[in-house]
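To make the argument concrete, we let one protein speak, a sequence paired with a row of structure tokens, as a model reads it:
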Amino acid sequence: MDAVKTSEPVPSAESRLRAAAPHELIDTARRLLTDRVGAQDATLLLADYALSVLQPVTRLPYTADPVPAHDGPAGRAFISQTPVVEVPAGSTSTHVVHLPLTVRGDRLGVLSVRLPSGATDPATVLRLTDFATAFAHEVTTAGRDTDLYLQARRTRRLTLAAEMQWQLLPGRGCARDEYVIGAHLEPAYTIGGDNFDWSTGADHLTLTVTDGMGQGIDASLLTSLAVGALRNARRAGIGLSDQACLADQALFAQYGGKMYASTLLLGFDLNTGAVRAVDAGSPQLYRQRGDTVEQIELEAQLPLGMFEETLYDEQTFQVEPGDRLIVVSSGVHGARDADGGSFGQQALRQTLSATRREPPHEAARAIVSGLIEHFGSKELAADAAVVCLDWNGRDVVR
């Protein structure tokens, strides 16, 4: 009896992207898009560290000219997180579809695909959106094995301290049904001691914002130790206050109280919206409920590492669906102008109110932009970190 011959299954786009060498992802994507939707070209644009431009990824050591991250068709796709179809000037035969690249709420950039004008129907755009999601995941994974995508994001060289801090971050955003997080750091290319971190589980979210003492490499080393100690304690299943205690001990053992890190630790119950908090230093917390902005006053406790064997207490408060929480480091609320006035006192609440309708990513960026505009400088003198969280809550069916 003859064997039954079966046809080989056609590999999916996802499987072909996974099989591509890390540095060949964009070439693989172009071939797949040409074969499957008749694409004439595709360009990968990655957001730079300051979120000011989108950098085209080409062969190292150079990239092509950047495009604005907050203007133009590609910028609109990045900001709105929805596909944008562009009709290039002077061309009736081709359209360009700009597709946001996002991984679990972390915005990476845009994939721009040039298509024949008759191929930008809604069904094709939907297929391209799914492709862009798969492609974004592969770009993130490939970043573990190649420097191509990290180098392409840079408009100039990072300081060593900034290099260490960016590698320490979990990303610049995270999204689940219960919440959406957006975060921003400045000055992006010289950041030293400011950091944010988060971890989510089935029923909880832990969020920390850390402001390491000092500047440059000393601040970066200090913050790296603080974040590493907090992660180590968290991953051991230890409670929030004890996480602070163990990180405090690690810093004091290393620096003997000469260097310390101000940290705000927040633990969210995803079922109830109850929040546990440990305020170990200077980051400030604001809540927007409706049109009302209020600072959540927490018991100020000692920064991590200031004294030996400091004990920390937890406090609790509640968030409700529709609430927005904003955490700002001392580089925001403590910044002062020539007259001695604080940005936090004069302009922070106005900026929070003005960005209430913006998504968390844009709100966080706008707060730092407002700070820069307030002081009339292109680059901040001190690190500034902003984390914005929109709370949706969870409907529990019992």
